[in-house]
Write a structure and sequence with these properties.
Length: about 350
């Protein structure tokens, strides 16, 4: 989970390696465990988990959760709550198993101790997953470069552009679900903000990551059009400092995630000319690359050019208004149901 500190990750890796079992992450902890590790099976997110992850997790005799942060978002409206009698939770300052609560135990000390212990390996859950799991056919093997962009094709194209030096940021909304479906290469970093669901977070976060990581990494941010409008002015500072980053704007004309939770006129927004908006902020600064993509081939070309460009790359992906990931449809219905309970 997302409460697992960076300093504890090495001990956690040693522990899970000795266990030998299947390893999954909660959605807000994506990137904390290498997704190229042979024990990694994907994201556990209840009914919208990665393929076969929910079946493996739900059927396990014991689930060890390290640093979980459980809320209505990470549990899909409290629909992904495992039976407490088979969950061992190692939290920052306590451990809980079933109804028994052990206070005053520090996660760091526990993981450090467990990492040094001899533990009998049990890979039955991993073997079961491998039997179920079939490689997913890449969408670009089916759809050509002239096919209109969709969330599925964007996912496939973006996954091919990720490298070990990429830092990926995902905005609140359908960007969550798109990013969580990506298989990150070893070394790829990932940032998302799920506790508060604050739209617009990623624009300022992109600026912060640029300032911290400099030009040593490929920074890519997935941002919805509605979220972008709340904090768009932050790109002015990115341009002024000549930071290198790629913003992929997912433009489907409004608040898609809110439409799936509770639709209404308040989810409509004024359509902007986003590419011209960015150029107007640049005000003649040549260190900006701006392009609109409507078909697969245009996005492939834009991502290639952005990887070579030493400045801000802004790629607007124009997709249909009703286009969203399958997981958002499922998640939105569950959260809407939970929000309507009395």
């Amino acid at each position: 989970g997302s409460k697992t500190k960076t300093d504890d990750i090495d001990h956690l890796r040693s522990f899970v390696k000795s266990l030998g079992c299947a390893v999954a992450v909660l959605p807000d902890a994506k990137g904390s465990i290498s997704e190229q590790d042979p024990q990694f099976i994907g994201c556990y997110w209840g009914p919208i988990s990665s393929p076969h992850v929910a079946e493996i997790t739900d059927s396990s005799d014991l689930v060890i959760m390290v640093g979980p942060l459980l809320n209505d978002y990470t549990t899909v409206g409290w629909n992904a709550v495992l039976p407490e009698e088979k969950v061992l939770s190692i939290c920052p300052h306590h451990v809980q198993f079933g109804e028994t609560y052990y206070a005053g135990l520090e996660m760091r000390d526990i993981l450090k101790s467990l990492a040094s212990q001899h533990i009998d390996s049990n890979d039955s859950s991993l073997q079961l997953f491998n039997r179920y799991h079939n490689s997913v056919t890449k969408l670009n093997e089916i759809c050509g470069n002239t096919s209109p962009l969709s969330m599925l094709s964007i996912r496939d194209i973006l996954e091919g552009a990720l490298t070990p030096t990429t830092t990926l940021l995902a905005e609140t909304g359908d960007s969550w679900f798109l990013a969580n479906s990506l298989r990150l290469p070893q070394g790829c970093r990932f940032h998302m903000q799920m506790q508060y669901g604050s739209i617009g977070w990623s624009v300022g976060a992109t600026l912060g990551v640029c300032a911290y990581e400099g030009r040593h990494r490929q920074i890519i941010s997935l941002i919805g059009d509605g979220s972008f409008q709340t904090c768009a002015q932050e790109i002015s500072t990115i341009i002024r400092n000549n930071f290198k980053a790629t913003i992929i704007l997912l433009n489907n004309d409004g608040y898609s995630i809110e439409r799936q939770i509770h639709d209404g006129p308040y989810n409509e927004i004024q359509m902007w000319n986003y590419t011209e908006f960015v150029l107007s902020i640049a005000n003649g600064n040549r260190n900006v690359f701006v392009v609109k993509a409507t078909i697969n081939g245009e996005l492939v070309d834009a991502l290639h050019q952005s990887s070579l460009f030493e400045g801000l790359s802004f790629i607007e992906c124009e997709i249909p208004r009703d286009e969203c990931t399958e997981n958002l449809l499922e998640w939105g219905s569950k959260v809407a149901e939970a929000n309507s309970r009395r």
